[in-house]
């Protein structure tokens, strides 16, 4: 029997690029551990961005079990280093295993355990090609400020899940996460140091290229 055709454009987009067995099993681990990995289309977007930027230095906030990290590493330059921050040592240990099983050389990952807002001030200004965020939504406005500081000119800030469950479009939603996401989406749009692009993949991937 012929496979069912995709029922929507977004389903087609999600299925456009398949993942290999390593990513499929890492994804299953993330779901088991309650640490949901990025979707397939977001993963593909990260790999694309890292490749287009020929990224050698990337920061990720929210390592999780390493699904987004592996997409980034596969797009980056062969000697590029991914600095990835997570507050949960157990999930970061899983990510470390996933990277090794995928054949990533140990020197290509710098895994830092800690709260992002404690770690980010220690990273070098202008030293990074790409900053990818998938962590505490209430902290996104602060990640935006750190991102502008950490990126080189031409570098890209990528904030994931900014349209989380459609909440920011619903004026009745006033919880802390929704307010923070609304704030960061507005601030990035108004920031004249950045060229923004809001992509409707996953639950919203907000990109912004740093001009100077
Ligand atoms: C949705 S998971 C990330 C999934 C990952 N991007 C992937 O594709 O596998 C979010 C992660 O952010 C981490 N996190 C949450 N708040 C954080 C914070 N304030 N600082 C650092 N990490 C944080 C959590 O421990 C969790 O592992």
Beta-strand residue percentage: 15-25%
Uncertain segments are: none
Gyration radius from CA atoms, angstroms: 17 Å
Quantity of strands, as a count:
7
Tally the helices.
8
**How many domain units?**
1
Q: How much is the average pLDDT?
A: 96
The description of the largest β-sheet is: 7 strands, mixed
Order of helices and strands: HHHEHEHEHEHEHEE
CATH superfamily: Vaccinia Virus protein VP39
Q: So, CATH architecture? A: 3-Layer(aba) Sandwich
Cofactors and ligands present?
S-adenosylmethionine
What general outline do the C-alpha atoms trace?
globular
Structural class call reads alpha/beta
Rounded to the nearest angstrom, the distance between the terminal CA atoms is 55 Å
CATH topology, what is it called? Rossmann fold
Order of strands across the biggest sheet? 3-2-1-4-5-7-6
> In the CATH hierarchy, what is the class?
Alpha Beta
- Which bin fits the share of residues in helices? 25-40%
């Amino acid at each position: 029997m012929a496979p069912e055709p995709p029922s929507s454009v977004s389903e087609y987009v999600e299925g456009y690029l398949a993942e290999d067995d390593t990513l499929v099993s890492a994804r299953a681990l993330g779901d088991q551990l309650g640490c949901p990995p990025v979707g397939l289309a977001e993963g593909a977007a990260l790999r694309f961005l890292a490749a287009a930027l020929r990224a050698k230095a990337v920061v990720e906030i929210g390592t999780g079990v390493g699904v987004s990290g592996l997409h980034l590493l596969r797009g980056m330059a062969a000697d590029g280093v991914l600095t990835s921050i997570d507050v949960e040592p157990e999930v970061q240990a899983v990510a470390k295993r996933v990277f090794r099983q995928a054949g990533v050389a140990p020197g290509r990952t710098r895994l830092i355990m800690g709260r992002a807002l404690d770690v980010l001030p220690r990273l070098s200004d202008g030293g990074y090609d790409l900053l990818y965020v998938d962590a505490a939504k209430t902290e996104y406005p602060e990640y935006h400020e750190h991102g502008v500081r950490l990126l080189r000119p031409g570098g890209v800030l990528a904030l994931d899940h900014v349209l989380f469950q459609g909440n920011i479009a619903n004026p009745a939603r006033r919880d802390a996460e929704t307010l923070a996401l609304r704030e960061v989406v507005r601030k990035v749009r108004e920031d004249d140091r950045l060229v923004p692009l809001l992509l409707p993949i996953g639950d919203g991937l907000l990109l912004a290229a740093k001009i100077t």
